Amino acid sequence: MIRRTASLALKQGQSDTIKVGILGSGITGCTVASTLLQSSSDKKFDITVYEAGRGVGGRMSTRSSFDNDSDEQIYQFDYGCRAIFPPKTELFRSELERWRKLGWVKQWNGKFVTIRCGDESSKNYNNNNQIIAEDTAEDEERYVGYPRMNSICEQLLQTKSNKSTVAVITQTRAAAFYVQSAGSRMWQLRHHDNAESKVLGEYDWLVCTDRNSASTKNVDLRDANIRPFNQLVNENIQSIPICTTMVILDKPLPITVDAIQIDHANNPTSMTSKFGTLEWITRDSSKPGRKQYNSDNSKTNECWVLQSSEQEGKRLLESKRLQGASLEQIRDVIRETMVADFKNSLPLLMSSSNACSDDSVRDIPLVVQSFGHRWGAAFPKHIAENNTFKSIDCYLDADKQFIACGDYFGKCHGSVEGAFLSGRAAAYHLIEKE
Ligand SMILES: Cc1cc2nc3c(=O)[nH]c(=O)nc-3n(C[C@H](O)[C@H](O)[C@H](O)COP(=O)(O)OP(=O)(O)OC[C@H]3O[C@@H](n4cnc5c(N)ncnc54)[C@H](O)[C@@H]3O)c2cc1C
């Protein structure tokens, strides 16, 4: 699928036209594209964003479904990034403020609690089940994409430019080839999954936004002639996989909180026995702009997202029954396991003093539908403490005109903020070098 924005058409082949190929349409790739589109440089950027997934957004993806006849929404889930938390840097604070003013994000006033194993000295110690629920800072501002998490990425790709253009090609995994011949060199992108390895386009600059592209298991950068970079990534970065399940309940869950973090750190054995794989339980329907009422004013089904802990997610994915399983089977096992954990933990969640709206309410809703998802690389992990990637915002090979960026760089790694900062730095480098 190819989508080209309405920016002015560009005459190709002009010397002041810089062709840029971007691998990935997550927040990093979209920030690079948007920053180039906004650039006041004399150069024109002819940008193509390739996305292996079905839609843009990467780990800020949203899954939704609509009724074919009435066009009414049936469900919507932000099944990757839950929320954007208070910025740590001025640069991201001002970008978030810009997004807020443009209506791309809205504040989520949902109530957050953390549940952990307590000891008898704890204020909220509950003698029956020995867990405590603590409100998370009420004044902490949290934002979500409006009307969906991935709409931030879509909006960034619509950035107006009076000279540059961007094309977005989804469902296409691109592999990069560095082609050098007498007096000329360029990046050639070819179809990764296509038997003929069809040429997709030729570019002056290559921007790679996914650390997995450097993996030895992956062909994305195998012929890119950037071995030092691939080696650096593989020696320094690991990917943390986790499991997610999207759940539709037939009616609202009668608890007064919208996001529950299960803190396994204090007593992992006890917490796992009570909550199984679960680390985050989020009422997605409570986010601003998400559908809460049907056209007849009745309450809609409620959408919840369950996210596993790192340890339990890994344990599940590495379990014997999943060895050699197909992706479909893996998703089914994730779904079954996490829905069972959710159901088992509900009585405890509902009886914990801070979470239940009314002690007399014990009317547990039914799960009407659920979907499992495996995030093979949910978060980056820096292997060594003094890791190169923590101190740089992106990687530049000016000679080859190659830039790597993504949420594995910088101090805010593993977050939307880190991804944004890295994408912004990458675009500035590119503009500066041109
Ligand atoms: C379950 C979960 C919960 C999270 N919760 C939060 C949270 O609450 N707050 C927060 O700030 N962050 C959260 N994060 C982290 C945050 O979502 C990420 O840090 C951020 O979205 C990363 O953006 P990115 O653009 O760097 O990478 P991605 O979003 O992963 O984008 C990379 C994209 O590149 C594509 N791609 C890779 N190689 C190719 C290729 N060769 N050709 C074409 N396309 C390619 C991939 O398909 C992918 O879409 C969460 C992440 C997960 C998984």
UniProtKB/TrEMBL annotation:
UniProt-listed Pfam families: NAD_binding_8
Gene3D superfamilies: 3.90.660.10, FAD/NAD(P)-binding domain
Transmembrane segments: none
Superkingdom assignment: Eukaryota
Protein name per the record: Amine oxidase domain-containing protein
